[in-house]
């Protein structure tokens, strides 16, 4: 399967002063983590997960979110 055909999964958790968004490729368990700081700074980190990532994120109180929200932050269109 081509990587362009992958439907990524997106997760979000809001803390008191920052937000974490996670993109997961469910085929090869890679992805991207965005940490949005209160002043608008965005940290981007390439990630490698294991097959238990969904359970791990659920255990850590992450909720499903949309590709649109993730990509708006990724492109710096919202802060």
UniProtKB/TrEMBL annotation:
The protein's name in its UniProt record: Uncharacterized protein
Gene source species: Marivirga arenosa
């Amino acid at each position: 399967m081509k990587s362009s055909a992958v439907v990524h999964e997106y997760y979000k958790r809001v803390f008191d002063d920052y937000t974490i968004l996670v993109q997961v490729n469910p085929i090869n368990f890679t992805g991207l983590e965005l940490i949005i700081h209160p002043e608008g700074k965005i940290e981007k980190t390439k990630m490698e997960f294991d097959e238990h990532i969904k359970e791990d994120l659920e255990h850590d109180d992450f909720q499903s979110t949309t590709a649109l929200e993730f990509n708006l932050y990724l492109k710096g269109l919202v802060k």
